[in-house]
Amino acid sequence: MFEKGQICTVEIMDMSDQGQGIGRADGMAVFVPDTVVGDLARVQLTKVKKSYAFAKLLEIEEPSPHRMEPLCEGGFQKGCGGCALARLDYPGQLALKEKQVRDKLCRLGDLAAPIVNQILGMDDPFHYRNKAQFPVSTGGVITRKGGIVEAAGDPAVGFFRAKSHEVVDCERCMLQSPAAMAAAEALRQFMKEDHITAWDERWERGLMRHLIVKTAFGTGEVMVVLVINGKGIPNAAKLIEMLDSAIYEAGFSLESVVLNIHKKKTPEILGETCVPIAGKQTITEVIGGLSFEISAMSFFQVNPAQTEKLYAKVREYAALTGEENVLDLYCGIGTIGLSCAAKARQVVGIESVRQAVLDANRNAVINGIVNARYVCGKAEEELPRLLASTDPEDDIARIVRSADVVLLDPPRAGCRPELLEAVGEVAPERIVYVSCDPATLARDVRLLGDLGYTFMEATPVDMFPWTGAVEVVSLLSRIKTSDKVEVKMDIEDGEVTP
Ligand SMILES: C[S@@+](CC[C@H](N)C(=O)[O-])C[C@H]1O[C@@H](n2cnc3c(N)ncnc32)[C@H](O)[C@@H]1O
């Protein structure tokens, strides 16, 4: 039995998404900050629960061969919570992520020996992010009425400290695009020169809440979204000029500046209303030879180089011949479905964000794609509605009912069970599931197993180097009723192989 204060040696076998090493002491999981997988560490327990404990690192007895000094010259030492794997070298990160996908599919997906292919990593895992989200603070105290007190510190444009809403100012970041860092510096200078307040959630006052910078690496276009608690920014023309020249000097072109009005006291980053104040309403990115227009509110994969690999793997798993109807659920601005459209009979996408659906329709048009249609709404509501439609004129419902391949790409929370049941009712030959959380993927793979789908294989794709997150593409295939009977008989005979 372990007690708080006890000292022990643990071998770090795994890491949490937040970058804590996880070791085992007599079967109990021990979470140790500042350690990496492969370290042998002497630790002191700081909190002991029934089946796990937290500990502080006393000494690395034997360092992991993959341990390294963090390369970050920006916020890491100041407590920025962005790069959870900053102490693990890149080969170590890839091995860890591949293992985590396999472990979760076994443990939570009830799979004995899932095929997990080698993770697809990056050749140059730096400055890959096309979207930066910087919280802003004045670094000092603002008064209840929103004015800056005289001794307020300089504006900070950076990232939240781990597990807090304190903003760590960050002038350099090894993940963000040069355009994003240039825009952050321009905003910092502007706020300082023009005494612009930043949102302070303690008093719920202050103007500037977040700076969002979207960079299209393929075209060099940049969009800046200024999230504010107010109707506008005083002297906004000066800010736009400063952003424009900073982004130009970084080698990119500012094409769109949008105000996002967020007066609510909620922690969501974006408010509901967007007002373009300079340039276009969208920027254009090129992925796999197709052009995609991206607006302020729409989702776009954050790592374009890896997105090409991700979508190529989706196409491989979808194995389209030109005859299939394809359902693209959680389609965002249509990227995955449109990249499959050339080899599909028809594509129907379902997406809950209205602006993204508008973008998807426009993206089909600008790429000359005529076999893709979109439905706006929650997939778990729209799919059952379309399946129940008895309207003979409802073309979309007809395509949906006869879908041969379903593409799933939900947010981290995974799919709702009612959505998976509706997919089971559609009964496609193949399901290609793209996930950014292997735990919810594994849960959904288990549910899809109950609906008659066999997990075939998965390929992890490293979309987020230096962070604890990993993307996975999985292929599931429908077990024909006759196959199911055979499997069952074989198991009864004591042989598991179908
Ligand atoms: C991980 S993104 C994938 C987007 C797209 N497939 C891509 O590759 O860019 C998930 C998308 O699901 C959308 N979404 C979230 N909940 C949804 C729901 N219940 N029904 C439909 N779409 C949803 C989000 O707006 C977002 O665009």
Automatic annotation (TrEMBL):
It comes from Zhenpiania hominis. Belongs to the class I-like SAM-binding methyltransferase superfamily. RNA M5U methyltransferase family. S-adenosyl-L-methionine binds at residues 301, 330, 351, 409. Residues 1-59 form the TRAM domain. It comes from the Bacteria. Its EC number is 2.1.1.190. GO terms for biological process: rRNA base methylation. This is 23S rRNA (Uracil(1939)-C(5))-methyltransferase RlmD. Transmembrane segments: none annotated. The active site is at residue 436. Keywords: Methyltransferase, S-adenosyl-L-methionine, Transferase. InterPro entries: MeTrfase_TrmA_AS (IPR030390), NA-bd_OB-fold (IPR012340), SAM-dependent_MTases_sf (IPR029063), TRAM_dom (IPR002792), U5_MeTrfase_fam (IPR010280). GO terms for molecular function: rRNA (uridine-C5-)-methyltransferase activity.
